[in-house]
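Comment thread on ticket #2218

A.B. wrote:
> Attaching the input chain for the structure job we discussed in standup.
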Amino acid sequence: MPYVPHTPDEVREMLDTIGVSSMEELFAEIPEDLRPKSFDIPEGLSEMDVLMRLEAMAARNATDKVSFLGAGFYDHYIPATVDALTMRGEFYTAYTPYQPEASQGTLQAIFEYQTAVCRLLGMDCANASVYDGGTALYEGLMMAVRKTKRRKVVVSEALNPIYRVMLDSYTSNLNLEFVTVAHKDGMTDIEGIKAAIDKDTAAVMVQNPNFFGSVNDFTELFKAAAEQKAVSIISSYPVLQTLLKTPGDMGADIAVAEGQSLGMPLSFGGPYLGIMTCTKKMVRQMPGRIVGRTQDTEGRTGYVLTLQPASSTSAARRPPPTSAPTSRCAPCVPSCTCAPSASRACAAPRACPLSAHTSWQTVSPPLTAWRCSPRVPSAMNSP
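C.D. wrote:
> Ran it. Output below, let me know if you need it in another format.
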């Protein structure tokens, strides 16, 4: 049986729709001399034969070797529990967390993940992760640039060179000035970094342990950055955070990490898991999605997207309706201008003070509780 999803009748209908009589006519634009005369494709095999052939090919790899390449990516032991949990139906799903009524399992998994990494790194807030550790570092830099409106970035040379190449690549078309402070025999030059910070500095970027494995306490460095109103960004190795002083205790504004070591195989280099955390004052600059735990009008626990970029959904960009009496403010906080009574509509279509992108909607039945969710799509009333 060929793996072709279309029946002859469906193929005929599609050809008629586009106005050609046959498949040959469809490809008539391709000159004869450019068309393949034959395909070097072997005859089909049974499922068992295919499996045996692939296993034989895979056995040619040297799987009994130990990699010492490292550089932030390591072949850790992965407990069997990881596969057992990630394959459960409530997590292993095609649903994206736009509709909480359809994806509570996914939303709760993200919420528990955010809680765990915040505790691990000692930070206030975490998003649902980004592509990998290098991407998280870049996104942290963009948060700092948006927050400070500055262009100078001080980077330790002891930062993973892979990440520094990524920063150079991602920012090649941006008007940023990178000042790289050389390491001293593999040690991070804290005093040199301090000397490079000034009133034009947007961010200070360091790593702990650094690329060479040395461990530092950056508390004083981050204090010096704060005095110049620069953002402190640190890349950490999550497994060692059980032993080392946390970024939060050091006073970091943004803490990122490569999460591959927390249960992901090397997978020939990725993709991995970019852990991203920050202090509460930086959360409005954070990309991605943040899941919050709430209660519906009947007191049941549920999970919703508390924050997400305005560009994630068209609903987040929808302007307030002109008729206020039939609308209520989407999940908001007591400091909003909306009326607290479930029997009253919003006092006026004014923006929530927490966000420039408040969603508005008609609700039925009326909301009896407020929940903080600026910038969420209008489907986020209750789980």
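A.B. wrote:
> Thanks. Noting for the ticket: The two ends are 44 Å apart (CA to CA).
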